[in-house]
Amino acid sequence: MSGERLSGARPAPGGPPVPGHRTGGPGTGKSGTDGSGAPGTPGVGSRVAGPPRGSGHTVLRVRGASFLVHRRATVVACALGLALFLAVVAHLTLGESTVPPVEVVRVLFGLPSPDELVVGTLRLPRLTVGLLAGAALGAAGALIQTVARNPLASPEIIGVTHGASALTVGAMTFGLTSYTLLPYVSVAGGLLAATLVYVFAWRGGLHATRFILIGIGFAVALRSLTQLFLTKGDYLVAQQAQVWMTGSLNGRGWDQAGPLALALLLLLPALCWAARAQRDVALDDATATALGVRLGRVRLGLVLTGVVLASVATGAAGPIDFVALLAPQLARRLTRTATIPLLSSALLGAFLVVLGDLLARRLFAPTELPVGVLTAAVGAPYLIWLIVRSHRGGAAR
Description:
This protein has helices spanning 3-7, 71-93, 101-108, 116-148, 160-173, 182-201, 208-232, 235-245, 254-266, 268-282, 285-290, 295-317, 323-335, 342-362, 371-396, and strands at residues 57-62, 65-70.
């Protein structure tokens, strides 16, 4: 049989397929595909193969492009977005003077309102800082926990937040920089601390336990350095720095919200890449390497993105502890996905900070507590529970 005859031959009914012939099976359409779901020559009735049944995914088609979407994660993200919007409205409504929710919504959508001064000028800047800082901390925790493959890994545990705090408090107490530049100083401190932890933890690879233990050691050392700065600096400035160290949104305005929003906007392409790269890092090293993934570079990129996010948030709002620890694990439990969902983690982080600041303002009114006090009150027991559960799991094995 000649080559020309072979390419056009058809297999016998019930027999094996003839080499060189494309068969139109499920998900291939009449024109056939290469078997991977990629379309071949388009024909009448051709379609793209859908996800396996029971996988929890669905195919979303938009203008000829197809996207694989996790149904439960999408529903959870929408629910978290709605909960966050309600928390925002409640945050802007409640205060020394209560504003009707309708007027709050009018101000948020740029419509004229008699309460524009109270909502738009006095309360909205503080809310914006908390919203953006919480989202940044939630996303930072998701990225760092993905790389470390450990729920205990978060910026405040491995020393990133303490590095940002130490350099920022040093700049504040000794008057080395203006308050408008503090977010950039925090980024420098966080990057320096993360670099030291990464270098000391690297021994032919990044081991999760070694990474966390060395990070804890650096966190203790940097916290002691911060206390040294507080004792050696000006008394009044040291008092302000002490309040800042508890993670407070009191007195925050557009001067802090602007640089934070700009930093997150610049990091948006990196976050889009990180959401995709998380799946590669979640694989075991042998599988990822066989697929051509450069694990060292991907992990470094994810850690760097998470460190910058946490440092920028710390510079704007202070070290709000345990948000980066809580948000990723809660998001993963809600979505039940294999990897930590980045969007849901960011939404949960923002929700925790906004709700925590609302409770901090109203629980003991007229006295306002720093939001970091409430997040620590919730996060510390959760951290203890995580450690106990990990210890029991190790003993069981």
